[in-house]
Amino acid sequence: MTAFHKMDEPDHRNRLDAMVQGVLGTGMDRPDGPEKVTGSATYAHDGQVAGMLHGVMVRATIAKGRLEHIDAQAVEALPGVRAVLHGDRFLRNPAQGTANEAPVQGSRDIAYLGQPVALVVADRFEQARHGAQSVTLRYSEESASVAPDAETAEVPDKKQSSAGDLAAAMDRAAFCVDAVYTTPGHNSAAMEPHAAIAAWEGDLLTVRASCQMLKYNVNELADALGVDPEHVRILSPFVGGGFGSKLGISPETVAAALAARALGQPVAVALSRQQVFEATMRRSETRQHIRLAADAEGRLTGIGHEALVSNLEGEDFSEPVTQATPFLYRGENRLIGHRISRVNRTCAGSVRAPGEAVGVTALEIAMDELATAAGIDPVDLRRRNIPERDPGEDRPFSSHMLRAALDDGAAAFGWENRPQGGARQGDWLAGCGMSSASRVNMIGKSSARVTLHPDGTALVETDMTDIGTGTYAILNQIAAEMLGLPPARVKVRLGDSDLPKSAGSGGSWGASSAGSSVFLACERIRQDIAERCGCDEGTLTLKDGMAIADNRARPLAQVLAGAPLQAEGEIDKGKTSEAVRQATFGAFFAEVAVNAVTGETRLRRMHGSFAAGRILNAKTARSQCLGGMTFGIGMALTEELIHDPRDGHIVNHDLAEYHLPVNADVPQLSVNLLEERDPWANPMQAKGIGELGICGAGACIVNAIHDATGIRVRHLPATLDKLLEGLDRLDDLG
Amino acid sequence: MRSFHYERAADTPDAVAACAAGATIIAGGTNLLDLMKREVVQPERLIDITRLDLRTIESAEGGLSIGALVSNSDLAAHRDVRRDWPVLAQALLSGASGQLRNKATTGGNLLQRTRCYYFQDSAMPCNKREPGSGCHALGGATRLHAILGGSDACIATHPSDMAVAMTMLDASLDIIGKDGASRRLRLRDFYRLPGDTPHIETVLQPGDLIAKVVLPPPAGGRQTYRKVRDRASYAFALVSVAARIELAEGRIADASLAFGGIAPRPWHDPAVDRLLVGEVPSAALFARVADVLLDGAAPQEGNAFKVPLLRRTLTATLNELCREIPQ
């Protein structure tokens, strides 16, 4: 019994607000919290099985060429080593998100330094690691392109667009900005490194892996192995952070499965931190040429946003830098450009809000420049440029909460009474900045099964994952709310590819998609209960395990009479994805102190106000925003993949030298979540909030640095060396 | 796996004998174990000295004697250190994390290896790791690297904060040699510049064991450690300055400075100290000091910013120490 719903029409019924259990939207603790903090939650590499072997991957040490020979014999002679494996089925790089098929395979052709080219399997991990470090590789090396090049970059037709005449608008503009911004590569840097344990029973493969999207990952893995997807099962009950890096199947999972098949024993493969940096996805560095034209009142008449990004040859993904530019602000003359340079660097893929994270950030620095040029308050400049309709596609917005977020954020931060920019305390200069946030909203096809047991407990099952986001909590809350059960009576099973197929975690669509499928299944169960109670579903009240209809309350157990009720819910995107522009919005505000001597920037406080439709769990939603803002701090101030200029390899491939913000970099952050219902999004009227907190976050900090010092940093991160010259000039001014 | 012998020294002669026979000392292991896992270093024999009686901090010769096994945490928290040598406590607390400082020892901190990206990656050429293989930092990523004291063979920096403060304080080491005799060496004479032999980092001889660090009697004036880095905590110094200035009647009566993050060893330039002594503090004086310090600086493209950064940080530090203290 499947309740299928396609989002072809807005759903104005707002059913969830009619429910009375009072669970949804509260800041309920994660049900899985105790397991995680006590260490009993089994992450991929924790599910170790008897007789398991260990594999460690071997990396290519050249940027481009052909692997001519692997000296396997010498390594296989080492104590404990079982085999040195390589071949046509090993992955060159991870699959891109939702690829649904294997990525480029084969150990022979080397496309970047760090590419996995072999697997050493041994009885013990230490033996395998030593084996991997002992392998001698012989190559025929070819000349590599290790840095992005605008001249030779591809210019895909589909990714260019224009309207009106931007050049003319720039000529006529009362105020304009024409500048180039750059952002460096980033790594997801999830706490849990990529790992897999593979075991075969006959033709059946079970893999415990760290994956975000099992529905796709099963097909990617099966395709890589050349087996029937029906024979592949993936278990990812707990995932220690994904941030995009676990969207597609990655090399260690395929390697573990191949090794387990070759050796007839379970094999575990975990990437080292260095391998995570080199062999999983990086965010492409970007070069962004932004042009803004405005009239005398600061109203935009033109926006140009042209991006150069990079990726390996043959990869379809390219950082969608300009994704939010077509709709965030008004302006009739528009130009979007997108070029992709083919480089021999670690594969580029989805990392923490691909597109908007870096694209909105650069655009919002440019908007700050425009505010400065026009002498208009930066918040007010944004208010003046909120479009009535999506200007890129001339269609309505499902909702546009930017103004509300700006107003709420400005009030919460105290924007009107902020300290004077450049105010000096000792060696420290104070400054404040703000920026807008925006992220496109999507859903994907997603299914879940809900079973209401006669004892008044419910089981929610889907292959959806919880990558630290709070899926276990919100699916519980949705079912508890719909079925009128205390959360303790709802159990959620996730992360097993044998369960109904969900959209998975990624693109901020997981909660909306998987949540809607749970909603639909519960709605169907409610209809069954209503039928048994002889009432309409709309008049049925379920609360605390009681079914209340026609002023009569009966325990659910009595209604069910010993037999469970089960339903599957399935949601899919429909015409509402095209008919309207769906997006989430927000606003960031920051106060920084910049050391006038050294150029060190210290964030003093940061606030974000966000609107993402219905908030399903106030605590986990807030945590998502805090995480996004923290990554925004990293993007603004510290994070940068450093590529060697000669071979392109990532030299700072560990957490000592790839500088994520540490506690001392993150001051008090505050988050306001705005009330909103978006009927175009899905029946829950909720939108994705996972990535919104990073989309533009870095800009408020960079803008605050400008407020403090007058120095405009256009090349992130704003490390101290980029401020020294400007500080010299400040010194001279005395 | 790569096997190695592990022994635990029962006493100092035991440890010295093992060292003389080629064993590598392990104490806190916060640096060595990481390097061994990645096969950056491949010792065949480890001698664990953590059971030796080298954990004492005591007054000695008017100064302070610090056992080589005293943890960074204990040393930073020691009452005498905080009172009389606050620069050392500051430097210690600016390094690593609480967990690492609990394990890391005084002797081990002095001997920690460079964070040069290319030294740390055994697939890359590195004269320090593999003599004669070349220096890949030259022409590569050099944010962490030296602007003073480097050579064509190596531009790696020494990463310790503690050692910079101790260099400024003119600490000495008590070293027990393979003959069992103890000798004393100034820390300022302990580290070697890379020259053609960057793999030889100190003057230690086979069989030598650092037993103690001895701080001279507390000197007058004010002292501070200023570390500039890429994030607020848990990052190595881009530049750091340990400084002590003693003022008398408006002039600098005594001065001692040492610098981190800029050279293959904690950097001390006697000419810098000499230039300050006897002078009235002024912007012009500090600019001259910076000129002398940076004379001969040979930055790379990726770390050229360290020249103005060091100049600015030095000036600010001297300004702070020479500022009139409000009574």
Spatial ordering of strands, largest sheet of chain A:
4-6-2-14-11-12-13
Oligomeric form: heterodimer
By secondary-structure content and strand pairing, the structural class of chain B works out as alpha+beta
Shape descriptor of chain B: globular
The main sheet of chain B comes to: 5 strands, antiparallel
Q: Write down the overall mean pLDDT of chain B.
A: 96
β content of chain A, as a range?
25-35%
- Helix share of residues of chain A? 25-40%
Total beta strands of chain A: 32
| Spatial gap, N to C terminus of chain B | 65 Å
CATH class of the domain at 222-322 in chain B: Alpha Beta
Count of helical segments of chain A? 18
**Beta content of chain B:** 15-25%
Q: And the CATH topology of the largest domain in chain A?
A: Aldehyde Oxidoreductase, domain 4
| Helical coverage of chain B, percent range | 25-40%
Provide a concise account of the structure shown:
The complex is a heterodimer of chains A (734) and B (327). Chain A is of the alpha+beta class and 734 residues long.
